[in-house]
Amino acid sequence: MSHPIHFRSSVDAYLVHLAAGDLAAAAREFHAPAIRAYENDVLVARDAATYFRKLQPILRRSVMMRGTVDRLCRDRSGETAAFLCRFDGVDTDGKLVRDEVLYQQRWSGGQVVEERQYRGAALAPAMSAAQEAGMLAPEPGAVRILGGGTAACLAGTGEARICA
Q1: What CA–CA distance (Å, rounded) separates 23 from 25?
Q2: Is-contact 135 104, C-beta < 8 A?
Q3: What is the mean pLDDT of residues 146-152?
Q4: What pLDDT, on the 0 to 100 scale, is given for residue 10?
Q5: Is the pLDDT reported for residue 158 higher than 60?
Q6: CATH number for the domain including 97?
Q7: Which residues pair with 39 in a beta bridge?
Q8: What would the pLDDT profile of 56-79 be if each residue is shown by its tens digit?
Q9: Does residue 97 form part of some domain?
Q10: Residue 21 pLDDT > 70
Q11: 7, 69, 101, 104: which sits with the fewest CB atoms below 10 Å from its CB?
């Protein structure tokens, strides 16, 4: 298990990348070489190279993207993070796009070793299950930090960059 401060700062930096819409930097900097990634419970990548290839169509179609992080729940002792991210942007055809994604991550040594993303029809049931299991902050604008620390810094802001 990594040091709690390292875990916290790694998650915070990852969220800053998502807030800036920089999915490529988040993946390059924080995904473990042997990451296992799932979309709606289907395994889509067994390593970082496959994950990054899977991102390419999204990166090519996006002219501008920003993420709004909400309902963050970090468990320092278990090195897990769960949060909702709403991505708003513009594609290459000038169309506005929006995607809401629930992330459930397992971290080790400052890297994401497993990531589950839920979107579309799978989003609402996954959010409900995560909330019932205590893996997600209970309401929009709320943050839950397990294993010590304070959540007050983020409550109601939706801003990842100010996480302490």
Answers
A1: 6
A2: yes
A3: 45
A4: 94
A5: no
A6: 3.10.450.50
A7: 42, 117
A8: 999 999 989 999 999 999 988 889
A9: yes
A10: yes
A11: 101
Q: How many domains does the chain have?
A: 1
Whether 162 is covered by a domain: the verdict is no
What's the pLDDT tens digit per position in 92-140? 999 999 999 999 999 999 999 999 999 999 999 999 999 888 888 777 7
CB-based contact 30:14 (threshold 8 Å)? yes
Q: Is 56 exposed, middle or buried (0-12, 13-18, 19+ CB in 10 A)?
A: exposed
Q: Compute how many other C-beta atoms are within 10 angstroms of the C-beta atom of residue 128.
A: 11
pTM: 0.84
Going from the C-alpha of 97 to that of each of 93, 105, 131, 134, the distances in angstroms are: 11, 24, 26, 30
Residues 65, 66, 72, 74: is their CA dihedral positive or negative? positive
Give the separation between CA 76 and CA 29, rounded to whole angstroms: 20
